[in-house]
Every structure is written in structure tokens, then in C-alpha cells.
Amino acid sequence: MIIFLKPHLTLDKEKEFRKFLVDRNVNVIPVRRRDQTLLVVAGRFGELAKREVENHHYVEKILETDKPYKLAGMSFNKSGTKIKLPKGTVIGNKHIVIMAGPCSVETKEQIMTSAKEVKDSGSQILRGGAFKPRTGPYDFQGLGKIGLHFLREAADRMNLSVITEVLDVRDIEMIEKYTDIFQVGTRNMQNYPLLKELGHSRKPVLLKRGMWATYKELLLAAEYILLGGNENVILCERGIRTHVPETRFTLDLNAVAYLKHETHLPVIVDPSHGTGRANMVRAMSKAAIAAGADGLLIEAHTNPLKSVSDADQAISMQELKKLVKEVKRVAEAVDRK
Ligand code: PEP
Ligand code: MN
Fold first, then answer.
1. Which of 105, 132, 165 to probe ligand 1 with, by most ligand atoms within 8 A of CB?
2. pLDDT in tens, 163-222
């Protein structure tokens, strides 16, 4: 159950109401939003207490839900969460959003050229990792802060928004200055201290599904961010581990159809990591949009074979342009733009 307090209720009145709840053995976690506090009931709730709460003059309404993810569940916001970025792009409306760029920011020149190509393709958001979660410690770990600087400059020059990965709680404040969207990678989906801290930011967070995670685990991970008061969570299907050796991961498009029924949060698909093969990315992009995804996260490189990370799945900029064009036609066929 979620208790919506009346908007602009003073802290004193909120305190008084919390005392009223404690007296009735009701445990809550407060969620502070712009002009309203929600109290999420953590445990069970007696019928009597429920009626008393519902009729309390500090309460606007209550919302009952039997889901373990109370804020992420569909009943919380049936019209769907729409996330507005500073440059005007909205994630979660009729328009399909495309985030594209290299796996890693490699050099200033590389990201500058990439930004121009990404813009020309019709994509809205520039991706590029400056902090890379590499499987091996000897592999390129990313340029760090200077990479963020290059990424931001390249995006601004082309009027694109930025998405980049945050690996470590200690980097949040610094990365926040450069990015429009935080990316949480598959390996960090259950890094709860990181998720909690991102809950205190108001910048959108794209949460990638753990390569081993169930849908429920993904939604509960999103709940950690939402519980901090950050309403701007985007989910991302990026492929899971299966017995298939021919692809790097198996892109689970079931997740898209499932999540679109189960949550109000936007769903993005990453067919690059989901396949690990450049020649499969365009086909799976179209399939993702047909399945109901709100957008795509694509790895594209100005010289794919020379890509310092994830070269096998990097598509060329010409291929990106072709992909965007074809995706637009699929989008129209499923009543999107
Ligand atoms: C990436 O987007 O480059 C990345 C590391 O993704 P994932 O966390 O899905 O492996
Ligand atoms: Mn990558």
C-alpha cells in the first residue's frame, strides 16, 4: 500500500501523521517528491488501520497493490512514465528514442566525429563509456573524467543528449555534471548502495537488466531508485546468459512484452550486447520496436574493426543510418513515431 499525503503538507504535520501510524504498528518508508510525500507501507496493514488512514485529513488517497515493487508496478502510474530530457527529447511517449555511439570514448576526435554521425542518423542521444566495467582488469578501463568532458562537448556541439555509465558511488556527483542519463550496467543491477544513491539524484537512470536477473529482480532493483524519490527510471533489456554459444548473450524480447504490462517505466532494448554480433543488430532493433520497446541503445563506431572495446558488435555509421530508417518504418507500423 502507498499513502499519498496531501501536497505541500508541512513537515510537522507529516511527523504528527507518522506518529499516528507508529501507534497503529504501521511501518512506512517516506518518498519525497517535488511537492508531495508518499509513504510506502513496508509490512502488512490491518483493515481498521486502513480505513482510519484513508479518512485522515492529511491523506490525499491510498493505493493498494499486491506487487512487491509498489512504485514500479503498473498500478502506480497507468498512463506511463514520460521522461523529459533538457534538449526536449521525451522517453516513453509515442516517439522512439535512439541512443547511439561507441562502446567507449577513445579519443576527442573519435567522439566528435561519432557525434556528428549519430546526429546525422536521426538519433537523439549520444552514448559512450568513460568508466568501463571490463571483464579483465588488463583491458582498457576507459578515459575517466577527460572522457566525460569530450563526450559532453561532442554532444553539445551537435545538440544531442548524453548517456554514460556510472560504476561507483564515489563518481556519481562528478558524472552528474556531464551526463543527462546515468547508465547502470548489467553487472551493477544489484549494486544496492549505487542504486540507493542514484535514487537521491533527479537525473534519469537507465537500469540494465542483470545478465542473470529475473524480471522481478529487475523491477525490485528499479524500486530501490524510485524509493529515493527519483521518478526517472528507464529499464533496459540487454540480453541474458543462456546455453547458446553462437551469440554473446540471448536478447530476451519476452522481457519487453512482459515489462510493458507490468510497469509504467519506459523500456529500452540494447541489441548490441544482446547479440554481440554487428550483423544481427539491425534485425533485432526492428524486432524490439515491434515488440513495444520505447527506444534502442546501439553501439556504433566510426571504424568498427578498430573499436577498443566490443568491436564484434559495433556497427558502422552507415549501418546506423540504415537501421534508424528501417526502425522508423517499423515504429509507424506499430502506431509509434
Ligand atoms: C555498455 O553499454 O557498454 C555495457 C558495458 O553494457 P552492459 O552493462 O549491458 O554489459
Ligand atoms: Mn559495450
1. 165
2. 999 999 999 999 999 999 999 999 999 999 999 999 999 999 999 999 999 999 999 999
Residue to mutate, 99, 103, 191, ligand 1, most ligand atoms under 8 Å from C-beta: 103
Q: Encode pLDDT of 247-301 as tens digits.
A: 999 999 999 999 999 999 999 999 999 999 999 999 999 999 999 999 999 999 9
Query: What CATH architecture does domain 83-333 belong to?
Result: Alpha-Beta Barrel (3.20)
Query: How far is residue 242 from each of residues 90, 171, 282, measured CA to CA in Å?
Result: 33, 32, 21
Q: Which residue has the CA at smallest separation from atom 4 of ligand 1?
A: 185
Burial of 328 (0-12, 13-18, 19+ CB in 10 A): middle
Domain map (residue ranges) of the chain: 2-64, 83-333
Q: Specify the ligand 1 atom closest to the Cα of 103.
A: 3
Q: How far is the CA of 185 from the centre of ligand 1 (A)?
A: 5
Cell of 135: 571483464
